[in-house]
Amino acid sequence: MTDREHTSSPLRRAAWIAGAVVVASVLFAPLSFGGFCADAPTADASYCVTTLRSLVGLDTSLWLWLGAVVVLAGFAWWFSARRGRRR
């Protein structure tokens, strides 16, 4: 392995992990609120629901986002290490 290939491997791995974090953030980072209220004739039957939404409109939470970041970054690390061994 040449010096250039050896030094570019950590950069390539970092790029894969950064890409995975960006994908997880676009899909699952809680950025806005959504919800609705259902009014009923009696006050006890009325209710409201508020949810967090991601950039693409998926219902999400802070824990879902953090979990997705960890899982996708781990997968990217594993995939980049696997690709590096084949060369």
TrEMBL record:
Superkingdom in the source lineage: Bacteria
Keyword Transmembrane among record annotations: yes
Bilayer-spanning residue ranges: 14-33, 62-81
Species: Microbacterium helvum
Name the record gives this protein: LPXTG cell wall anchor domain-containing protein
Alphabetical UniProt keywords: Membrane, Transmembrane, Transmembrane helix
